[in-house]
Amino acid sequence: MSADVSEAGPLDPLRARLLSRDVLAGILFLTLGLAGLWLNEYRIGMAARMGPGYMPMLVFGALAAMGGVVTLIGLVRPGPPVEAMAVAATIWILASLAVFALTIERLGLMVATVLLVGVASLAGHVGQPLRILALAVGLALFSLAVFVWGLGVTMKVWPWTF
Amino acid sequence: MDILSGLWFGLGVALQPTNIGFCFIGSLLGTLIGVLPGVGPVATIALLLPITFGLPATSAIIMLAGIFYGAQYGGSTTAILIKLPGETSSVVTTLDGYAMAQQGRGGAALATAALGSFFAGTVATLFIAVAGPLLTSIALSFSSAEYFALMVLGLIASVVLAHGSVPKAIAMIFVGLAIGLVGTDVNSGELRYAFDIQELSDGVGFVPVVLGLFGVSEVIRNLETADWRTARISPITRLWLTREDFRQAAPAALRGTMLGSFLGVLPGGGAALASFASYGLEKKLARDPSRFGKGAIEGVAGPESANNAAAQTSFIPLLTLGLPTNAVMALMVGALIIQGIQPGPLMMERQPDLFWGLVASMWVGNIMLLVINLPLVGIWVRLLKVPYDLLYPAILVFSAIGVFSLNNSAFDVYVTIVFALVGYLLIKLDCEPVPLVLGFVLGPLMEEHLRRAMLLSRGDPLVFVNRPISLGLLAVAAVLLLAIVLPAFRNRRREMFQE
Description:
The structure holds 2 protein chains of 2 kinds.
Chain A: H1 2-7, H2 13-18, H3 21-39, H4 54-76, H5 87-120, H6 129-150
Helix pairs in contact in A: 3-4, 5-6
Chain B: H1 3-14, H2 17-35, H3 41-52, H4 57-82, H5 93-102, H6 106-139, H7 144-160, H8 166-181, E1 183-184, E2 191-192, H9 206-225, H10 243-265, H11 270-285, H12 298-313, H13 315-321, H14 327-338, H15 347-350, H16 352-373, H17 377-383, H18 388-407, H19 410-428, H20 433-456, H21 463-466, H22 468-485, H23 487-498
Antiparallel strand pairs in B: 1-2
Helix pairs in contact in B: 1-16, 2-4, 2-16, 3-4, 3-9, 3-14, 3-18, 4-5, 4-6, 4-12, 4-14, 4-16, 5-6, 5-12, 6-10, 6-12, 6-13, 6-16, 7-8, 7-20, 7-22, 8-20, 9-18, 9-19, 9-20, 10-11, 10-12, 11-12, 14-20, 18-19
């Protein structure tokens, strides 16, 4: 972790400090906490007879407070900056699940699984298209065996079945 | 039921053919994922949660537990042979285990790890059988105030005794508690934070959350660095110990077992803390500490016994108090709740086959693991050649289908996507997802106990201080929090987790 600190060198100190992991995390917690408090439209009640809004008040209030503490610590004690994110991999992986969710109910398990593997393969180095296809079909058949035949889960399997 | 008849009864349950089968599947899977880098017990158990839905409760828990302690065996194999710890609890094993392998004593290191783990597993099983009923009888006298205080202590301890920034971890607990608020309030029937989304009326699903946080976001993180195809495996020679090896390893294994059994019960620590602590202890006790890091067999025997003992005894707070103390135990709570069982002190009385069956199955599982691991080590090593690029699509497929199959709901898959992204962002901000999950699991219970305690005391918060047990629990939590501020404790803690 100590190696990361040197990378912050070229950035101007204020910006580096604001973009540290601690400060960003703190701001995130603070925002979440305040948003929760603001959205808490439920009856608070009293300690002896708590309404549905009582616990949210405590939890989001504490979250906002901890967010403030984390931000302050980050500002006072400079920590390592945020690591680079694997943006492309993140997008492909999440997209592969989204494609599955969009297709599973209409096109069934087999198609949805093959599409998932196809999109997910863009995030790594699975290999040639044929290899990807083989993996996709293999996983689809394996899931069919485990979930539908083995565990007896009822779900649409092929595009033409119900 | 006294301990002996309990164990005997449990053995009967564990030895039923189906339960033996699931125990074997669990141990085997545990070894497998322990060997495979980048796939840990938390992700695997999350992946298998949807499958346990259709199983009897006892079989399901026996299998999931097998994965956890099985992974402690498998993780040491890779740590010794290629200096790649399969699990965090095997990190210290790389130091001396890999050094031994390079000197051609890899077989001895593997045997030490397996035998030490087996011995530790046996002792830990007995430890649970003795400590379980004891703690349960204490817990049965608890009222809501004590339960609330206990959960506060459990959550605080789980972040103080784990690695990472404590303020951030505490904030993460509150994030988890906040997620637990979503859905219908049990008391008023009012919908909270559901934003008119009908699928959220029962709350945010447990399985989508944990699969997103631990399964999918781990995949993304692993893809950043994935390059495990260059593993060079030291050849394994004889899989046995010389008399001299044994003489040095046995006392270390004994100490590691004791230390691990004790540390496993503490929230947050679990297997990883136990192995670090044991390594530190062995180094301190050694006549010649400079041998450590260069192939000292005590450096393998101690930590490997400790992590296995701790993996098992970390079930104690869950089975007796209903308190999950690490991510795996939070998943166990999820698995039990899917089965309609609320973990807690009543479990031993109401589900004796589950409690005693699980305890006995751990011992049965440890015997299986010895057989699975030692003679078959060659097969496991070959698995290391499976590239991650073939593994991660499989993880994604099982996550997606598993989540979907729970309620036949595509919405749950979207929830998984959201939490995968959240989990990845949090990793980048250096925030551990474990406290979030603990808060999420305990949230509804904490609210209920707080509400009841305050109702009984007519709104007087002093109820938590006036009752001696509750006061004691909260005092320990306060001491832990204050200790973090002390530089001496903070440095010690940092040292412990960095070694």
